[in-house]
Amino acid sequence: MLAEAAAEQLGLAQVLFVPAGQPPHKPGRPLSPVEDRVAMVTAAIADNPRFALSRVDVDRPGPHYTSDMLALVSAEHSDTDLFLLIGGDMLAGLLTWHEPAQVIRQARLGVMRRPGATPDLARLAAELPGLAERLEWLEAPLLDIHASELRAWVRRGRSIRYLVPEPVREYIVAHGLYK
User: Fold this and answer.
1) pTM for this model (two decimals)
2) Full domain range(s) for residue 157
């Protein structure tokens, strides 16, 4: 839903979904196997011709930083201005990212508000000159759904129907994920 809203508001011809390889901010935390994550993204976006999957992050050795991923995507799409679509919760933590200034140099930020997330825009702007000019706030429904909660629901045997695209729910069931 959020990618569709961003595509409409920003006039994007294509939205790339880039599953993370091994996020450096999650060391030692168990992640779903990369091929399952790729398969679920593929299933989720299959019916939207404006959406595409990029394996640029999962097909390379780590560490996997957003700034490096953006450089690779930019090289593949050199004739395109990039937007990085994130939630307000991610914007609030932007200063903790690896090379955040490089991130905003490589891509404009399309930011969707998140319940409970209030980025300190004054601090961000002071630490990252030029951020305000690279930031686009997007109108989208406020969704307070987190992947960790969805996985916990599945573990407890609760339904996630209507919380994820149906092909993703079917994949999770068929492969016994998160049990």
Assistant:
1) 0.89
2) 145-179
